[in-house]
Amino acid sequence: MDLGEFRNLIAAVRGEIGKAVQGQDAIIDLVLISIFAGGHCLVEGPPGTAKTLLARSVSAAMALQYRRIQFTPDLMPGDVLGVNLFNFQTNQFHLTKGPVFTDILLADEINRAPPKTQSALLQAMNERMVTLDGTDYSLGPDFFVLATQNPIEQQGTYPLPEAQLDRFLFKLVVDFPSRDTEIAILSKHATQALKSDLRNAGIRPLVTSAALAEGRALIDAIRLDNTILTYIVDLVRATRSDPDILYGASTRAADAVASAVRVRAAFEGRDYGLPDDVQALLVPALRHRIVLSPSAEIDGRTPDEVLLRNIMNRVDAPR
């Protein structure tokens, strides 16, 4: 597979996902970038904006195993990771694997589970392995977490700790679609049976584990120019000295942006990154990694606004 074939594959995958998810092209692109970059995605948006449908559609377009966890206040770490149970017939402990042992994991409404359960995903997301009773179990190179949360309802929810937020490559904010898109969605559903589901969307699984590995090999061969790397570092460092930001982004954040830039370049059929790639990815990669100062919050500023106006306008892009 060369870069041209890879670009065509990604275009075909976009089209398959678009059969079910409409009006969210930018979000779909960022989810695919995250998968090929080996990252994870946190999707935030009000109910009914196709967050779960997006995860199901992405999994349907990939020939990978998919599982879903509905996070609830009574969910325990063992319900996510699994437990060792004693078998009285063999007099041995037997591992009952939890739903985390999969390729694509949908962590639905992740902020409804208490911190103890949320932290069960920390090792899995960072190291792609799970340690149970002193034994390490690999989750495989294709393991990907797509978590969702509802920003409106706060009762019975637990904010994600900074350590867990930092493990998400992107935080994607899903908003309501445009009027024309909503009309198109309703028009499409009006021609279907009332109980139709995703299987009727006819999404074909185009990305196998082997194709994913080939795509990542192409991306690994892409090297970023020092001017691009310097630009990324200067942007991240600027978040640590801005008066509107209490805590800036980490070195891990800079590395995440660089990885995502390489993937975006490959998606466009290029073997080099551009400042435009950095600017397109900076906000979704950093909006959850910075903490605004109290004065900025009192003024009603948002992380997106601070990143766009303060950081990107302050740091000159290379020419």
Task: Give the uncertain stretches in residue-range form.
Answer: none
What class would the helix/strand composition place it in? alpha/beta
| Whole-angstrom Rg | 20 Å
Backbone shape:
globular
Strand ordering within the main sheet: 2-5-8-1-9
Main beta-sheet annotation = 5 strands, parallel
Helix content: 40-55%
Please trace the helix and strand order, writing H or E for each element: HHEHEHEEEHHEEEHEHHHEHHEHH
Please, what is the average pLDDT?
89
Fraction in beta strands: 15-25%
The count of β-strands is: 11
Termini gap: 31 Å
The number of helices is 14
Could you characterize what this model shows?
- By secondary structure, the protein is an alpha/beta fold.
- It is 43% helix and 15% strand.
- The protein is built from 14 helices and 11 strands.
- It has helices at residues 3-18, 25-36, 51-60, 77-81, 115-118, 122-127, 162-165, 179-189, 209-220, 226-238, 251-267, 275-286, 294-298, 303-312; strands spanning 41-44, 66-70, 82-87, 92-97, 104-108, 129-132, 135-138, 144-149, 170-173, 245-247, 291-292.
- The strands form 4 sheets. It has a 5-stranded parallel beta sheet with strand order 2-5-8-1-9. It has a two-stranded antiparallel sheet with strand order 3-4. It has a two-stranded antiparallel ribbon with strand order 6-7.
- β3 and β4 (92-97) form a beta hairpin.
- α1 packs across α2.
- 39% of the residues are buried.
